[in-house]
Design brief:
The protein is an alpha+beta fold. The chain has four helices and ten strands, in the order αααβββββαβββββ. It holds the Pfam family C2.
């Protein structure tokens, strides 16, 4: 093939026109082309044959599981092209698995194999949620202010959308600890197609007030507020962090672990690249 370029090279050196459409696409630009590093290749026949067969089976089963999961994920998103790509990878791994299992049963030699690093682009989406759902999980409090073994606490939530009627919720009370584990989920609704509500996401925050339960004839005591900026959901569909408790600009001490999920980001798709060590039998 390289000799076929000689005439083109000479022509360009002389300033003559050439037909660039006849130049073949370099293999590294092909979508199915995978670059294999020498360090990632494993010689077949090394070590105990039975252990090698077991490792190959385990890795192929993992690949089949990855392909099945990703295929179902993309089908739920309506991305048939990506789902078909993972279906193809899964079928290849299933065929390789049958080969390995048959060779193992018949006591044959371990076939040639190598590992590749494959890069997959995954669209992050919580398909278990509706388009207009916002799910908040209050996980736990961390070192809340108060007596460690004598604090009964709960959390009040306020989702500021719609403006005229903010949505509210409240956790149960966890007793006798300043590290309470709540693990409660709440669902709020918003209108993804409403421009005014999307503007509220830019300006407003989800507020979680932590309170200590009062005793007999004593009022509940405010411990602090954790605020989560909703603007982050324009580009991501998951916020999961520990937020400091504040009273205005004053830190109160302690934190609240909270997880916020929506189906997909409000403005853009969230695409993440993952690398998988991929087993290939033969070659």
């Amino acid at each position: 093939m390289s000799k076929g370029f000689d005439s083109m090279i000479e022509a360009t050196k002389c300033g003559l026109p050439i037909d660039a459409s006849t130049i073949p696409t370099p293999p590294q630009l092909e979508s199915e082309f995978v670059i294999v590093d020498v360090a990632e290749c494993i010689e077949s026949g090394m070590g105990n044959a039975e252990e090698t067969f077991q490792t190959l089976e385990k890795d192929l089963l993992h690949q089949i599981e990855v392909c099945t999961k990703n295929k179902e994920h993309f089908l739920r998103l309506g991305d048939v092209s990506s789902a078909s790509k993972f279906e193809k990878f899964g079928l290849e791994s299933k065929k390789d698995l049958l080969v390995i299992q048959n060779l193992r049963k018949t006591g044959s030699l371990v076939p040639k194999f190598h590992y590749e690093t494959r890069l997959f682009s995954m669209v992050k989406c919580h398909t278990d949620l509706g388009d207009n759902d916002l799910e908040v999980t209050v996980e736990r409090g961390i070192n809340l202010p108060g007596k460690p073994d004598d604090l009964d606490s709960y959390v009040r939530l306020e989702f500021p959308i719609p403006t005229e009627a903010p949505q509210k919720a409240k956790t149960h009370t966890v007793r006798d600890t300043n590290n309470p584990v709540f693990q409660e989920e709440f669902k709020f609704e918003f209108n993804r197609k409403s421009r005014s509500q999307l503007r509220q996401f830019k300006r407003q925050s989800l507020k979680l007030e932590v309170w200590a339960k009062g005793g007999f004839l004593r009022s509940d005591v405010f411990l602090g507020t954790a605020s989560i900026k909703l603007v982050d959901l324009e580009s991501v569909c998951l916020i999961h962090d520990c937020f400091s408790l504040m009273d205005g600009r004053k830190a109160c001490g302690g934190k609240l672990e909270v997880k916020v999920r929506i189906r997909e980001p409000l403005l853009t798709k969230q695409v993440e690249e993952t690398r998988e060590k991929w087993l290939v039998i033969g070659s």
